[in-house]
């Protein structure tokens, strides 16, 4: 057989040097490659995959995500899984899968990116294999083959971007087929995965700081805590958290797999000072146009209203900022808790002292800094690869707009271990945190 043009699948072959054909010359390749089709069919066919069963109930129990409203919908439930651990998919086919004939590739694309990109980690191609890849890579492993279906185990990388992913399945048989899943997959942080940077060994703390939807916040007095409903599994809360990272925080691509960048973005996005964040702070006694901070007893109404209107909710003070930020973190799978610091110093100039100007009689003339009767912030549990394992563990993040950090009203993540050791040289905002708990009071005459 003679052809004028060689398809790209033969591009690896070239004739001996000096003996190549001139332009337009016929060449005979049948003897080298055997019979070949007159035309290679690269047409995309849509008929091979019929449907995907996301195994909502089984995956929800294994990944401890069954409480999310997305997973409990009677119509069109949506899968939420934790990165670094396997989840199961059953794929219905119109013909029996043949591993020797069919080449199947799973494409995962970040939904909020118009053009997903391999280099940014927003487009992932994973071949179907019989054995998993290493623990730090994506993998799709064939578990079972039946007459008209296959079961696979998918494991997202423990460092992958947290967010909403679309799934496309490409199959190359004699023809090429593609199937676009109508439903997305939500991937969140995983404190149960030892390779995730938020891994936490204590089961008790994971139950409390990830799965517990209610908690106590102390304000005003150490003797009278108040109930706060975090509502991290309720409608729109997870979607609002992802909106804050991408739309308000402006993180895209690989930055969304950088937990330091994510937490700094969240601490800024929960207040309104630099952007259209969630809560409008008010420390006056005039709450017209909104509700007094003491009105709120949970995050649900605040976050749902904000996600619906995309306008700041009025009004909040420190415990409201902390409660909302903790809800957002728990929705994303981050271990988080609320901390109250009584007699909390506010150092406005980075001196790590609370400075007062007094006259010769000791009367205060001016207060450069102040001591609040209490202040409330959030803490998350994470590794600090940028600092070293000595500073892993609880990190302070504070959404209350007190002082700017690198030009924005945000605070943290600041290592609690570093603060206790007085190592205030470590990022982020450790001098400010240290002064809150351990500032010296200085009187300037």
UniProtKB/TrEMBL annotation:
**Coiled coil location:** none
Q: What is this protein called?
A: Transglutaminase-like domain-containing protein
List the lineage, top down.
Eukaryota, Metazoa, Ecdysozoa, Arthropoda, Hexapoda
GO: which molecular function terms?
protein-glutamine gamma-glutamyltransferase activity
- State the similarity comment: Belongs to the transglutaminase superfamily. Transglutaminase family.
Cleavable signal peptide = none
Report the source organism. Answer: Oryctes borbonicus
Q: Where is the Transglutaminase-like domain?
A: 310-401
